[in-house]
Amino acid sequence: MSVRELELEREPLRRSRELARADGQQALMSLEGVSLYYERRRGMMAPAEQVGAVVDVDLDIYPGEIIALVGESGCGKTSLGSVLTGLAKPTSGRVLFQGADIAGLKGERYQDFRGGVQMVQQDSYAALNPIRTIYQSLSAPILQRKIVKGRKAARARVIELLETVGLTPPDRFLDKYPHQLSGGQRQRILMARAISLNPKVIVADEPVSMIDVSLRISILNLMAELNRKLDIAIVYITHDLATARYIAERGRMAVMYLGRVMELGGVDDVLSQPRHPYLQALLSAVPTPDPDIAKAMLELPLRSLEMPNAARPPAGCRFHPRCPHAIDLCSQEEPQLRPVGASEAACHLAEQTLAGWQERMAAIRASRDS
Amino acid sequence: MSQGFADFWRTIYRNKKSFSGVIILALFIFMAIFGPMLASLDMTVKFDNRYASPSWSHWLGTDYGGRDTLLQLVYGSRDVLTIGLFAALFTLVIGFVVGAVSGFAGGRTDTALMFVTNLFLTIPSFPVLMIVAALVQIKNPVAFSFILAVWSWAPLARAVRSQLLSLKNREFIVACRIMGLRMPYILSREILPNLTPYLAINFIMAAQGAIVASVGLMMLGLAPYSPTNWGMMIQLAVQNTGGIFNPKGYIYLISPILCLGLFQMSCIFFSNGLEEALNPRLRSN
Amino acid sequence: MDNLVEIKGLTIEFPMRAGTLKAVNQADFSIPRGQITALVGESGSGKSTLASAVMRAVTSPGRIAAGTIRFDGEDILALSRKQLQAYKWERASMVFQAAQNALNPVVRIKDQIIETYRAHRSGASEKQIVDKARDLMDYVRLEPDRVLQAFPHELSGGMKQRVMIAFSLLLDPQLVILDEPTTALDVITQAYIFDILVKIHKEMDITMLLLTHDIGVVAKAADRVGVMYAGNIVEAGSVYDMFKRPKHPYTAKLMKAVPSLYDDLSERKAIPGSPPDLLRMPPGCPFAPRCEHAFDACRKASPSRVVWPGGHEASCHLHPDSQTVSIAEVRTS
To answer: Which of A163, A264, A293, A313 is deepest in the core (most CB within 10 A)?
Structure first.
C-alpha cells in the first residue's frame, strides 16, 4: 500500500480522534505517524540495515493523564520515549506539543517545550553526576533556566523539592553525593529534578526496575501523587505489566511490539479483555503471586519463541509468525489500530481472539475454585 | 566546597605512599622557592678545595671546582621545577583544549584536529628537539618548557578526546540536555570536573616527564647551559671533569641523580593517591 | 522430609575497612530432595552468598565463620581438595545471574562444552560428549546442530540462558542452583524457561534451588520457599503456606507490597523504611526497625526459630512457640 493510500485509510481514525479531542480536551502532545529508523551494521563488511525502532505510531497524551507504554525489549517503547522528550528526531511524522510541531520551534517556544517535557531515568546512579552534591545537581537546572534567582532562593526551592518527594529532613541530603544514598532515595531525587522545571509531561522509563520490590510501590505512589497534585501527565514506560496496572490504574495503556502499537485503551479494559494475541501471550506469561493461579495458568502456545529481526520485520502483521491464530490474511495485510469495543487493537481477528481469551480465563477460574 | 578540600587532604594523608610523595614534593618546592634566598652560591672556582668531603661548611662536599654541591642542588632545583611545572602546564592546556573541542564538536572539527594531533604523534620528538636545539638558542626556561610541551601534548589530546566521547553520552549528561542546559555550562561544570582526576595525574606525570627530557637534553648538551641544573651536574661529573674516576667525586656525581630519582618517585607516589582523593566515590564516607 | 542439603547455623562474614559485614547470620535451611526450592530476598538479603557457600565458592574476602552444610549427609565444608573437585559441577552446579556473559565469546558452544566436560572427567570420547550435549540441547528445546556450531554472539539472550542451563546439567548433578536465571529476559522467554526447568526437574529428578526476588516466579515454579532478610532466614515452608498463611511480618508485607495483575490495588502497601545496612545492624530482630508489630523484645533479642507441623517455620517474637496464635497472623491472612 502506498504511503498516500495509507494516509487516506487512516484519515477516518484520525478524524474520530480529533472529534474525541474536540469534545474532551486538547491533547497536550500528539504523535502523528511517527517513525524512527536507525542504521545498523552487523559487522564491518555487512551492508547497513534500516531498523524500525518506532513505526507509524499515532498517540495522544492528554493533560494530567497517566498512560503506560508496555512492551518487551526491542518493542520501541524506549525509542518512543526519546521521541517524546525530543532527544531523537523522528525519521517521519510529526510531534506536536501544545498544538505546534516541535521540529519548527525556536526561541522561547522551544524553551517552553524543553522545560515542558522532562524525564525520569531507570538508572538513578548513572543519571546523576557522581561528583556533584545533591544540592548542586538540583540547583543547577533551576538557576540555569532562571526559574529562581540567587543562591538563597535556589536553596529554599531545593529544600521545598526534597520535601515534596518525601526526603525529610531535607537538610540531611543537600551535601550528600549520589553514591551515599540508597536506590530509592536517588530515584526520588530524579523525580525532584524532573518536577523542578515545572513540566507538563514526565516520561518515566522503567523508573522502578532497579529498586527493591518492597519499595517499588512507594515510588509509584509518589509518582501518582505528583500527577494528582501538580497535574503533570506521566508516560510510564515498562515491561512490567503489574506495575503499569498499578500506576495507570485509571489511565490508559498502549502495548507495543516491534515498533508498533498493538493495543490501546483504558488499563482495566485492556487487561481484563485483551484483544491482541500478543497481549494475551504476555498476560499468560506474567507469573501471578498466587500459587493457585500461577500453577494453573497455561501459556498461550506461540509458534515461535524468537523475536524477529527488527531490520526485516515480517510481512503483513508483525506478530503473525508467532501468532497461534494467524490466517492467510495476516501475512498479507498489516492490520491497523481499530476500535474493538471500548479499546483499539491492531488485529484482523480481534473479536474472535477476545472471545477465546474469555473462555480460557473462565476455565482457569473454574478449575481453581473447584 | 571546603568540605571537599578537607576530604581531599585527609584521603591523601591516609595513603602513606601518597602522603610521603606530597611531603617530598613540598620539600622540593620549598627548596626551590626559599633555598636561594637563604644562602648565596659562590661559583668562583677554587681548585684547592675540589672534591672536598662532606663537612659542616659543605654538607655534601664540593664539586670539581671547589664549589658547594648542596647549594648548587638547591639553586638548580629552581630551574628544574620551573621547567617541569611550565612544561606540564602547557602540555595540559594544549592537550585538553584540542582534545575536548575535538571530542565534543565532532564532525569536521574533529577530523581536522585529529589530523594535526596524529601528525605530532608520529613525528619522532627527540630528533626534532635536537634539531630545534641546534638551530635556536633557548635561554629562557619558560620558553624551553614550551618547546618541550609542543612535543608532548598529542597523546593527552587523544586521551581527552576519547574521554569526552564517552562522557558525552553518559546518562547524566543526556539528562542535562533534556533539561535544556546549555553547552558552555555542560562543558565547564559537568564534564570538566569529571576529568579532574585524570588531568591532575597527567599533570604530575607530564611534569616528571619534562624534567627527565630536559635533563636528557642537557646531558647531550642541547639545552641552555646552566651549571647548577641537576642534569648539567650529572653531565659535568660524568663527561667533563672526571668525576667518575675520582672516588671523592662520587657524592657530586650521585647527589643530583638521587635528587632526580627522588623527585620522580615523589611524583609517582603522589599521583598514586590522587585518583582516590579527587573522586568522592572512592573517598571514605 | 528427605533433605538433600541441610544447612545449620551458617554464618558468613566479610571483613571490611569499616567493620565486619555479616552477609549470612546463623542460617538454618533445608533443601528437600527432588523438589524445587526457592530462596526469596531483596538486595542485602544474603541469598546469593548462602548459595555460593553451598557451591563452596564464597568470594573473598568472605569467609564461613560458623555452621555446617551437609550435602547428602556429607559435610561439604570439610571436603579435601580432590573431593571438592568431584563435588563442584558434578554433584552441585550453578546457573549464575546474567549467565549469558559467562560464555567465552571466541569459542564455539560445542568446544566449550567439551572443554568443561574434560575438565572434570576423562575417558569420554569427543563423540560421546557431543552426543550428550545434543541430548541436553533437545531438553532445553534448542536445535542441536545450529546451536552447537554457533558462537555465543550468534544466539539471543534466551538461547544463551538455555545453553547455560544445559551446561549446568552436563555432569548429571543432583542439585542445580539458579541465581535469578531470568532477569534481562523478556516475560515470554522467562515463562518458557521456567517450563523447561520444571520439566527437567520432573523428568531428571533433579533438586533445584532458585534464588529470586520475583514472588510471581516463586508462586509458579516453587514447591518450597525460604525467605531471607538481612542475612537471616526469617521464614520457610511450602509455597502455599508462604502465600496463604505467612507467619513472619516481612513475608506478609512482601506479599502485600508487590502489585500483581489480578489483585485489589487498594490493598497494596509499601514496606516503610529502607533496606538494612549490614554494617550497622541494630541488636535484636533485623526486621524490627521496619516492622509495625515490633515491641520491646524485638529490639533486644534475636527471635528463635519455631517449627510448625508440616515443615513451616519462622523466627519472630510474635510466635514464641508453635501454639500461640498471634494478632499479626489473624491480620495478615
So the answer is: A264
